[in-house]
Fold Putative metal dependent phosphohydrolase.
Amino acid sequence: MDASLEKKLIETITPLYKKGRDGDWEHILRTVDLCRYLLKHENGDPNIVLPAAYLHDLGWSVVDYADFNAATPLEKTKTISFMQHMEQGAILAGKILNDLSYDETKTREIQRIIKIHDLPETVFKKPNINATLVVEADRLDRYGKTGITRFKTMFGKGKITGPYWEEARQLRKEGLKMWFITPTAGHLAQKLATEMGLFD
Ligand SMILES: [Fe+2]
């Protein structure tokens, strides 16, 4: 992605993310870094993958996510705000990229990715490397030491023990088989899972 465009994009979205969920902006920066790493080893268009990574969670800044936070880890995907954040995120991304005069075809692809970015099964059904890398990078950020920190920031320190965390741990273990299809992401996920003590 062109450096001046990236700068403008960051200037536009930083204040919006600060209005969203705690820790989301830091999550976005890590997701972008993870995408850059995946792009070194896998095919994919940086002009689609990187803007999509920057914009993918913007929807949380305009939806009421109380139901998402209140749900157990396994039930979160059934909440209304979970679906809304993808729909609203795609709309916001379209507006922002249009304002920056971004390529229209690429903008539409970015919007399509954002609309389904939290539905790995849907994304992996239709092979598309750009969507795949965004999903993988986003999910990779649930692992490693930073994955634990992020979990505490989002759901509270008290949620890192007991049944809530056990459910989340189990989800991450199963996710190792379901959320990564490129070899690069698969290897990194295993490494980060070990680092966070998922197999202890
Ligand atoms: Fe995300």
User: Anything to note?
Assistant: DSSP finds eleven helices and no strands in the chain. The pocket of fe (ii) ion is lined by residues 27, 31, 56-57, 138 (CB under 6 Å). The radius of gyration is 16 Å. The domain at 3-195 is CATH 1.10.3210.10 (Hypothetical protein af1432).
